[in-house]
Specification:
Helix content: 25-40%
Number of strands: 6
Number of helices: 2
Structural class: alpha+beta
Radius of gyration: 17 Å
Strand order of the largest sheet: 2-1-6
Order of helices and strands: HEHEEEEE
Shape: elongated
Strand content: 25-35%
Largest sheet: 3 strands, mixed
């Protein structure tokens, strides 16, 4: 399960920022997760519950912000939203798409006290 290592990396990044900014408590974290990222939010949440103990995030709430997966269709020359790597263009049915996002896992925001 790669979500455990991803979650540990998220916690390390947040702890580093807290240390740099003299913060002792994180109340909320917002994560952007794209549909092409191969990351399961439920698994991240499960791992977060385990890893956050005895950290500045011990009572922190995790929020997920969905981001769309976009692709440029070479046939109809439009940017369209897709749901998976193998989708055809929803506008024209073309299969020659160039992905332009949606494989993200990013810390969007951190709330602290």
């Amino acid at each position: 399960m790669h979500e455990m290592s991803l979650t540990q990396n998220i916690l390390e990044i947040v702890e580093e920022q807290c240390h740099r900014n003299n913060v002792n408590k994180v109340t909320d974290i917002w994560l952007e997760i794209g549909p092409l990222s191969c990351v399961e939010p439920d698994a991240i949440e499960f791992c977060f519950e385990i890893c956050r103990k005895n950290t500045v995030m011990e009572n922190c709430k995790l929020h997920f912000v969905p981001v769309p997966a976009l692709a440029y269709c070479w046939h109809c020359e439009k940017t369209v939203e897709i749901k998976s790597h193998y989708d055809a263009c929803p506008q024209c049915g073309g299969i020659h798409l160039q992905k332009q996002g949606g494989d993200d896992l990013r810390i969007k925001e951190i709330a602290v006290e």
